[in-house]
Amino acid sequence: MNLEKPDYGTKSAFIAIVGRPNVGKSSLLNALLGEKIAIVSNKPQTTRTRITGVLTRGETQLVFIDTPGLHKPRTKLSEYMVKQVTDSVADVDAAILVVEPEGEIRKAEQELLASFRAQGIPAILAINKIDTLDAKEKLMAQILLYTQAFDFDAVVPISALKGDGVRDLLEELEKFAEPSPFFFDADTLTDQPERVIVAEIVREKLLRSLYDEIPHGTAVAVERMKEREGQDILDIEVQIYCERESHKGMIIGKGGEMLKKIGTQSRQDIERFLNCKVNLQCWVKVREDWRNRENIIKSFGYN
Ligand SMILES: Nc1nc2c(ncn2[C@@H]2O[C@H](COP(=O)(O)OP(=O)(O)OP(=O)(O)O)[C@@H](O)[C@H]2O)c(=O)[nH]1
Ligand SMILES: [Mg+2]
């Protein structure tokens, strides 16, 4: 019996990007790929589902899984989000734990480290946002704190925003690649359909423009996406769902100003992403307490 692995000529690894909300996981995914495929905002719980990003360089393919920030679930939607994290960790060859450059180890991180240990998953510690650090000592203290809690394969200080350290991180990640066929075509960037990315772009603008619970209670669905006959223009209709009539009022804004701003910003990003002219129409509907209604959550694609 030949126990040696066949020589595929290619190598690959599945790598989960995990951590607390708002530490910069999606920013890191985008920085690793050199393309923006995951939305980013300064509000926690921006990412709601797993996002696959594929980076193929030469004979090596790294498949990244960006995940929602690990937090204590308070709604059915956030239960779904947290399950995305635990399922992802169970499925990968390695993980990147993304953390802030200062502060304590939190419970969510301890839980993640415990799951790495239980499943024998090797991990790299990425200390993000080093561009915000004023003193080197803080970084040293953070490295000490986390390396005492877990035996990381490597520790890499990074700035996902500025790109610092991302190349060093990639070098470390490539070490996890094992001989195997490619799981995606070499030119694949993500498994997200265009419609999903378009909806996510609109949700990003909602997160960036609105406050308190309002953006967290929104969901976006693309109802129609069709090229206008004989013209180089794409007509897109998008439905924004929110939880209350009062939220709907805030999203539309005085004289429709807010919705207009969100629409314009979304259209510009969608045009850049799809590389064509877009006519975008946004509508707002109320679905009361949808974050606790399983059928609606599923119909929004969170299943
Ligand atoms: N200064 C600085 N800000 C960063 C850096 N990386 C991310 N951010 C900011 O941190 C905030 C959160 O970034 P995200 O990438 O959405 O964080 P996340 O971990 O994916 O958040 P969730 O999806 O909510 O869990 C955004 O405002 C980013 O611009 C960095 O290296 N430096
Ligand atoms: Mg995210």
Could you explain the architecture of this structure?
- With about 300 residues, the protein is of the alpha/beta class.
- The chain folds into 2 domains: about 10-180, 3-Layer(aba) Sandwich (Rossmann fold); about 195-300, GMP Synthetase, Chain A, domain 3 (2-Layer Sandwich), CATH 3.30.300.20.
- Helices cover about 35% and strands about 25% of the residues.
- Strands 1, 2, 3, 4, 5, 6 and 7 form a 7-stranded mixed beta sheet that branches. A 3-stranded mixed beta sheet has the order 8-9-10.
- Helix 6 (about 195-210) runs antiparallel to helix 8.
- The longest helix is centred in the last third of the chain and has 18 residues, at about 255-275.
- The radius of gyration is 21 Å and the shape is globular.
- The relative contact order is 0.14.
- Guanosine-5'-triphosphate (GTP) binds next to helix 1.
Name its key features.
303 residues; alpha/beta; Rossmann fold; GMP Synthetase, Chain A, domain 3; 2 domains; 7-stranded mixed beta sheet; 3-stranded mixed beta sheet; globular; binds guanosine-5'-triphosphate; binds magnesium ion
CATH superfamily annotation of the largest domain: P-loop containing nucleotide triphosphate hydrolases
Uncertain regions spanning at least 5 consecutive residues: none
Give a short account of the largest sheet: 7 strands, mixed
SSE sequence, one letter per element: EHEEHEHEHEHEHEEHHEH
Q: What gross morphology would you assign? A: globular
Output mean pLDDT.
96
Provide the CATH topology of the largest domain: Rossmann fold
Number of discrete domains: 2
N-end to C-end Cα span: 43 Å
- Helix percent reads 25-40%
**Cα-atom radius of gyration:** 21 Å
Oligomer: single chain
How many helix segments?
Answer: 9
Q: Give the CATH level 1 class of the largest domain.
A: Alpha Beta
Beta strand count: 10
Q: What compounds are bound to the protein? A: guanosine-5'-triphosphate, magnesium ion
Return the CATH architecture of the largest domain.
3-Layer(aba) Sandwich
